[in-house]
Predict the structure.
Amino acid sequence: MSYKDIKEDVLRRITSGQWPPGHLMPSELELCDEYGSARATVNRALRELADEGVLDRKRKSGTRVRRAPLRQARFDIPLTRLEIEGRGAAYRYALVARDLCLAPDWLRARMALGAGVKVLHLTCMHYADGAPFQHEDRWINLAALPQAEDSDFTETGPNEWLVETIPFSDVEIGFGAVVADAALAEFMGCTTGEALFQTERSTWFDGQPVTFVRLCFQAGYRMTTRY
């Protein structure tokens, strides 16, 4: 079954009362057996229903039908290439630096990583019509994605690679302003001390940390939400 078929069947069970508000749903593995589908397919169906406020998903405590539908602010974060091309600009990507190392203490604390975990650290730049658009500072957990160590990110950015390689079951996103230091100002073509818009995003799949990224955008960047 496709994820759309699974999603439709789960909604049918909820609306028919088979799975009433507060009901603890079967685990992903049980649903995989029932629907004869891969876990990633089941996960996508449940994730979309959770995003739409129908289900409440929590690590280690399972998935329940919400007692009341939840309306959420939803942030549209497209692939950078598609965002730039959607503005009618020419997209260019550059891999600035690549480093294989042990996860630093701050990242271990942020992502709940164990000691001695190896990570891939990538620094990337994205350009719109040749002008700096986004600075990407990304860390990939090689315990979750060991194939990333041998992947070539010189032509395609890690964000597109991750979207094609692994789904996510949980995500945390933070928004704020950052003061550009000398290194960031050089990348972004701005003055040192200028305030830039920054997002931080952490993703997990099935309880395992996958990636943490800091994205800094060109001065004047504006992000919109849909509610």
User: Anything to note?
Assistant: DSSP finds seven helices and ten strands in the chain. Helices lie at 3-15, 28-35, 39-51, 80-86, 105-111, 158-165, 182-188. The chain has two domains: 3-65, 74-226.
